[in-house]
Amino acid sequence: YKRVSADGQPLRLESKDKYYNRVAGYVTLFAALLHADAHMDFDLGCACSDRGPHQTCARCGATAVSRGPIAISKPDGGARTGTAAAWRWLARVLNQQPRRITPVLLGPFLETLAAPLHTAYGRQFAKIIVFIEQVFVPRIHSAGNLQDEERGALSRLETILGKIKAEVASAAGPGTHEALLMPLFKEEDTTADAGGGDGDW
């Protein structure tokens, strides 16, 4: 049997590198959403059907005006969001046998949430970073059978751990990650200089 897509063309599978990059993006988004407790509400100023999340409407020129922050609804009392949920997720990952994808998950998660986790858990967070560096990472190394993509993710995780350790040791502590400092408006996309492409995002 030959794998084909819906239109009968040969199916082109996603490379492992692209898959890992996509997973890392999802983990960063997941971590940022765990931390979010409010979102900004805006009067967009128009009802154009193709209105994007931009400050000024490209069609009619209307400008969005902020109505202020709205608390995110947490009908479960926040059990599935916030630093407590992030801490539980981290504990679950660390209580499992490491897999080849584990560094891909841990790196962006810790990089995004180091500051709020350190604020909430202080010395316990510092201890878990030392545990990951001295116990968990060697387990990943000893698991063997790591390919280039996994070795790259593991090297990045080790760099992130070193950076977090240095920041925790400093008086200032870890800084807020850029994923938690998203702009209120997205710049309008332009594909004028794209010049084609192979369909990959």
Question: What's the overall average pLDDT, rounded?
Answer: 78
Distance from first to last alpha carbon: 29 Å
Number of helices, where a helix is a run of at least 4 consecutive DSSP H or I residues: 5
Strand order of the largest sheet: 1-2
Residue runs with pLDDT of under 50 for 5 or more positions: none
Structural class: mainly alpha
The profile of the biggest β sheet is: 2 strands, antiparallel
- How many extended strands? 2
What is the global morphology?
Answer: flat
Order of helices and strands: HEEHHHH
Residue share in β-strands: 5-15%
Gyration radius from CA atoms, angstroms:
21 Å
What does this structure look like?
- The model has no long low-confidence stretch (mean pLDDT 78).
- This protein starts with 15 loop residues before the first helix and ends in a 32-residue tail after the last helix.
- It has helices spanning 16-35, 82-94, 102-121, 123-143, 148-169; strands at residues 38-43, 65-71.
- Helix content is 48%, strand content 6%.
- The longest helix is centred in the C-terminal third of the chain and has 22 residues, at 148-169.
- It is flat, with a radius of gyration of 21 Å.
- By secondary structure, the protein is mainly α.
